[in-house]
Amino acid sequence: MRNSKIILTIICLLLGGFLVGCGRIKPDNSKDFKPPLLKGETKGESSSSTLPISKLFIDPQVFQSTDRLQPFNFKGKPVAGVINHHILAADLVARFFKTLQAVRPDIETFIILSPDHFSQGRGISTHELTYFTPAGEVVVNESWVSELKKEGAWDGTESRAFENEHGVGALAPFISREFSKAKILPIFLRADLTPDKAQELGKALAKLADDKTFVIVSSDMSHYLKEIDARQHDAETIKWLQQNQWGKLSAATDQNTDSAVGLTVLHAYLQHKAPLIKGGSKGEFSLLSHKLSTDYVADIKNTTSYIVGFWE
Q: What's the predicted TM-score (pTM) here?
């Protein structure tokens, strides 16, 4: 009897393996998003450290539906901008990059200043991994990552943990669609990064950037407030942006923005970059749009807000 049970168990295991191999029984990871091979890569060549980031931050159908949206009404040549990473407001992200394509089709590298939402790094972090999106690949400017290392402008944290960071991942599909040949420099900033370190990074980025660079502060604004309070804080934030009150922006909390550190880096960048920009830089902020999560869903007691704009 015992031998019969052993033989029966072996038969079941063999049958199960056969069915999986034939596709009759799908393994647990069958629904995982699987990107095609990278350019120049052969099957079985990749390691876990070089596999592309393939996490879907937006439903492909929702993403496709935003392609019909029109750019914001804007004329000028911006050098930096702020855009939300909360993909609930995907329309704002789509229109932001469509506007950039209309007024800055020359952009070759996007520097993205993202919050380190999950505190994966020690202060300033980056990586060299490719993002695979519904619109195609977005590759990192590896030579710029190397330059940041030489400058000592970051803490050296380089981990696949950042593949879950929506501060960059949510923007990647829109960059790929509108700027298929552009590269990115993803930078993840902890909220407790000191102002001195943030300013050093801004200076290093200004030295690195050229005329075909665009800096993005990836930022949602007020968080988890009642709608009436969110609108009051947003009015305050917009005033600070338009009046160049950088001190207040740098000291802001989640009641105003989740990327005060990113704004500190941007301020230092603009200060050091202005003399190098052809025609100078006024550093003026142009508001493109302002919305709340209540414009999309009805939870008026737990909101997130979005302020979209450019610096010229």
A: 0.84
